[in-house]
Amino acid sequence: MSVSDEVETTTVPLRAWPVATVFARLALAAGFLSAVADRFGLWGALHTGNVAWGGFAAFTAYTHQLVPYLPNSLAGVAAWAATVAELTLGLTLLAGVAVRWSAWAATALQLVFALSMMVFLGWEAPLSASVFSACAAALLLALAPVRTFAFSLDRLFATTSEKR
Question: What's the DSSP call for residue 90?
Answer without folding.
Answer: H
